[in-house]
Amino acid sequence: MIKYAKITDASKGVCDVGLGTNLEFYKSIGMTELDVEQGYDGVWYLKEYLETEGYKNKLAQFKQNDFKSKFFETSLGWIKRKVNMKDGATKDFLCDILPQIKMAVELGENVQLITYKTPDFTKDCTEEYLKSIQERKSADLNFIKECLLQTSADFYG
Q1: In sequence order, what are the residues at sequence separation of 6 or more whose Cβ sits closer than 8 angstroms to the Cβ of residue 16?
Q2: Which of 2, 22, 43, 72 is most buried by its number of CB atoms within 10 A?
Q3: Could you tell me if 113 and 76 are in contact, meaning their C-beta atoms sit under 8 angstroms apart?
Q4: Given this model, what pLDDT does residue 156 score?
Q5: What is the pLDDT of residues 35-74, one digit of tens each?
Q6: What is the bridge-based pairing of β-strands 112-116 and 82-84?
């Protein structure tokens, strides 16, 4: 988008951007009309910089870190930490759901889980994309152990 801006770090494409309507003021402090976009980190960049491999790699790393904060990995696949129930409630998988799964598995029940394949972090992790990488897997005692170890790692670091 075209905005009044001033390049503050040419090597990174970083800009200060005038977000108000006082165009005369922006011109008086050396801003000119530039094609800029706001990045994933809230910083404004020259649009052309956002298309470089360096920025795309940083964006993919950001998406991966964000994903890992919302999911944890098991041998069955990635598990969503906060799950949405059919009634609209949100529950914590490890604290609220795992105990029931553990009991059912110990009783010999086949408990189906929704797991996720590792995403392509060059894509946006929209709900639609996440649904496309879902898989149904059966919980077993090894999975329960992995979840208990994850709970411990979350608590102790």
Answers
A1: 5, 6, 8, 31, 44
A2: 72
A3: yes
A4: 87
A5: 999 998 899 999 999 989 989 999 999 999 999 999 999 9
A6: unpaired
CA proximity to 28, closest of 9, 6, 46: 6
The token duo for 97 is 């759901």
The tokens of 155 are what? 């608590």
- Report yes or no: 26 and 39 within 8 Å, Cβ to Cβ: no
Yes or no: say if 34 and 15 are a contact pair by the CB < 8 Å rule.
yes
- The beta strands (E) that lie in the chain are given as 2-9, 14-17, 32-38, 44-46, 71-74, 77-80, 82-84, 90-92, 112-116, 134-138
Tokens 């949100």 sit at which residue? 90
What is d(CA 49, CA 68) in angstroms, rounded to the nearest whole number?
26
CB 37 within 8 Å of CB 1? yes
Helix (H) or strand (E) holding 88: none
Q: How far apart are CA 116 and CA 74, in angstroms?
A: 10
pLDDT tens, residue by residue, 72-96: 999 999 999 999 999 999 999 999 9
pLDDT confidence bin for 125, thresholds 50/70/90: confident
Residue 102 has a pLDDT of 97
Question: Which position has the token pair 């129930």?
Answer: 85
